[in-house]
UniProtKB/TrEMBL annotation, chains A, B, C:
One of its GO terms (cellular component) is plasma membrane. It is found in: Cell membrane. This is Putative membrane protein YeiH. Residues 16-89, 101-172 form the Glycine transporter domain.
Length: 212, 212, 212
């Protein structure tokens, strides 16, 4: 078990970070739904799915119990964040730069946690990377499919590549986890994804396009 | 086990009701597919998916064997209903009010049965509600995604809210099931969803929209 | 176990055939993504999903470990084939007749292998057919949903019908497998799907459309 670390109780820290990620991703989904003029229920569903869909896909693939059905705090936070966006979205849309930063943090966190969960369930390094990247980007893909957009992550920028890089760091690094330390490794991977994503936004990096 | 009730053999009644729900949902999916000018196979697939997709998503989430793969009567009824729509759709489109009533009955039934299945599999009240609502609305969402519409349930009216109310009734009420009685509880929840949905159609209730 | 045949080592043959099918389906997905001007990552994801998505849906439904997470050769071949399309697509688009032939071979192979896997996991004949057809057409449906098209398989031609016919042959024939022989049965079913598909392309067969 990669996550069983003795002599240190990080559960609450990790939980708080994950719940922040959940809130941010829910806000991102709810904003897209508001933009499509969906009703209250639609905003809540898209927000919740965006926040928890990536993890649900991950859990279905690795045959874990879906987190959304076993810990009520995740759906509660997702629903509340969606309701806040539904009510206050004009003010929130002025906070777009802040949202981009939080979204990058959510991507970093979800990807790393998902990759570690894949390793915990005994999957190979490459498979844990697939599972981790899906955890990070899956919710956004579901959001875009439901609001009838080609998933932004597949079209626009250096979003998914950042997740891939982080997933590789954490899954390869896990072999030397006893030397590196569990939390050091996680922090390196999370920071890498976050920084790559921020730099990509700042300098408008784009993944290469096909020449047609 | 919530569903194990002694001294009473309701299986056939419950089965007939569920098969009617399956046929109605299949007809709804097949009608959407006919409207998009899909071919025979497309009509049958969308009809079947609309009828059985919600239950399949439920079964995957709670890690049950998908009903569609274990009881041939469900896919058979779904395929037959889709074929009937394919052949007779002009006549059926004149029956739209009837279809709306049957669809509300299907929604009520699938939501309640799905919620109970979630409880049976040991999930918490809130999780059983999620599972039940997905059972009721999931098929319609899959239908709309495949025919390239934003899911109607997320956009238009008081459809999903009715399912949420019914799922809460049945999952909370299950705690006092021995006093209320299994079938009384089911009937109350089914009737509530059905009546809320009918009243919502009659008075054009809508879930609130965001103010933009 | 349907697939346990003594005195003959066909694994490598079967594996090579499946990897060719994977490459062809990945190329088909990557071509669609290039046509939508997705970036490098989008092309790779759509290509991989098109190649491996049908099998993943199958494995989730029958509760098997997803092949994509247990055998690295499948995702590797899918990613490589997608990269080749990304780099060389103008040349490849001149090979469209060849691609159609290879795609028909992929459809035949994936459907038959998927149906056999369904039988192996103890599902009934009809359920194994559903699972097998989903293995064959599921990847293409995911591809079309992500690039925002109504799935071609539901709209255009005699694609899915060929898969249905082959799945029925292999799942019904499995009862007399000891007389027919495992590989003879597989070859008959694969050849049937392939020939039906080729004839359908040649003579522009279409599944019937609804009369409106």
């Amino acid at each position: 078990m990669v996550t069983a670390i003795s002599g240190f109780e990080p559960t609450s820290l990790s939980l708080v970070a994950e719940l922040i990620g959940t809130a941010v991703f829910a806000a991102s989904g709810a904003s897209a739904a508001v933009g499509k003029r969906l009703d209250l229920f639609g905003v809540v569903v898209i927000g919740t799915l965006c926040a928890l869909g990536g993890g649900a896909v991950r859990d279905i693939l690795i045959d874990a119990k879906p987190l959304v059905l076993t810990d009520w705090r995740y759906p509660l936070v997702a629903v509340l964040a969606s309701l806040v966006v539904f009510r206050f979205h004009p003010a929130l849309s002025r906070m777009r730069p802040t949202m981009l930063v939080l979204d990058a943090a959510g991507l970093a966190l979800f990807t790393v946690v998902g990759t570690l969960k894949g390793l915990d369930y005994g999957f190979a390094v490459y498979a844990a990377c697939i599972v981790g990247v899906l955890s990070g980007i899956g919710g956004g893909i579901l959001r875009d499919v439901l609001v009838q957009e080609i998933p932004a992550v597949l079209r626009e920028d250096f979003y998914a590549m950042a997740a891939v890089i982080g997933a590789i760091i954490v899954s390869v690094g896990a072999r030397w986890e006893s030397q590196i330390g569990h939390w050091t490794l996680m922090l390196i991977a999370i920071a890498t994804i976050f920084v790559v994503r921020m730099v990509a936004i700042r300098y408008r990096w784009q993944a290469p396009k096909p020449n047609i």
